[in-house]
Amino acid sequence: MATSASLNPTSRTPSAELVKGLRLYDCTTIVMGSMIGSGIFIVAAEIAREVRSPGLFLLCWVVGGFMTVVAAVTYGELAGMMPTAGGQYVYLREAFGPLFGFLYGWTLFLVIQTGTLAAVAVAFGKFLGVLVPWVSTQTLLIDLGHIEVFHHPVALTFSSQQLVAILALLVLSVLNIFGLRLGAWVQDIFTTLKVAALLGLVGLGFWWSQYHPAAYVQQQGTWSGVHWDAATLTILSVAMVGPLFSSDAWNNITFTGSEIVNPRRDLPLALLVGTATVCCLYVACNWIYLRVLPFAGSPMASGPLGRGVQYAAEDRVATAAAQVMLGGKGATLMAAAIMISTFGCMNGLILAGARVYYAMAKDGLFFHAVGRVDPKHHTPAISLVVQAVWAALLTLTGTYSELLEYVVFAVVLFYAVTIAGVFRLRRIRPEVPRPYRAWGYPVLPAIYIALALFVEWALLTHKAGRSLAGLSIVALGVPVFFLWRRGGVNSKL
Q1: In this model, does residue 2 exceed pLDDT 70?
Q2: 389: Cβ–Cβ under 8 A, 6 or more apart, which residues?
Q3: Which residue in 262, 440, 459, 462 is deepest, having the highest Cβ count within 10 Å?
Q4: Does residue 211 come out as left (phi exceeding 0), alpha (psi in the -120 to 50 range) or beta?
């Protein structure tokens, strides 16, 4: 059980070695920049194929946005209470004990943060390939054939796209070693650019559709053929993988709590403003997709209008929309915009994630060396390097969609548990100062938990393989935790 002392932000995760340098604008750009990666430009096609209805398609994004904002404003209470390095790891530790904190940090390192980094890095390489054809999964730098793993062929290859993904991860990780302000400066610039790109896409799409209404007319009867039953709700829940992944990482700003100048005010405010803004942009972008492109299409068609949202070439829905509006140069412009977006997203994830492993090391729950701070630049340099190496290895394990599905199940699980922690801390620690209290408590947090559990059930029953893999990673952390605590793991490395 948490103690009053343990809720002191400096009592268990010493952060004197880190420096305060993040202000409200930096915090907001980390929230928004970590959320906006490649998902908004790619996942719409998969969602459209799953739901098969324009109405359900947009509803997925609305529900995903609602869940994200509710979670963010609920986390604001925890962030105001415990503005320290580690963020969500600390919240779980204080609400439910060290085991829960460790399970989150363990899963964050193995799949959530690093898996997301790998998926976004792969997308960066994918869209660089539009501008530089040499960067492709077909350009093999190493080809050792295939091996059988559980009766499934696994390719032992290394492509130029994977090389670019790994180089991007390593460059940004090294850059973040050279100071918090440098990483924040990069984040401010790239977040501003990609928000401007999304606003430009929405504005251009709205203007274009006023003079080319044909595609929009095809979406009439948005809800036709939708039968509201258990099967429809299950389909909707499974399709939520895309919106939830695209909206993920908003909580990363909480990892940097001890480096924020005015955390008790700026953390809750950045969470609210950042998530609400991005989720509104996401709904607007997908509405534009439906105004520019037909919803349904054929995978055999040659052009973007024939393929529609469902079968956009290589799932590049945003690129297809840009091509329709701007012709051949649209694909080039959109590829450049997505490269900016994914580059900025990687920077935010890299900057924030390393602080969690740093906090775990300070608690004796991760390798001791990871808790060291570079004395010159005041950054968790070793943590940044370890994170980069593991994320780089994950880029070799699967495609974008496979990495996405591994990540989402674990992400939603820990969001639900952390929000349950708000209920528990209100009961067992009512005396702890709360500069900000969660909006709509207890109704909105309870709704989030219910929706999250339904999504988890749908994923377990319909995408069992990768969901169980994600759950197994969490469960494997239990014996590792006890081994670590008993000295079975050399935490002094």
Answers
A1: no
A2: none
A3: 459
A4: alpha
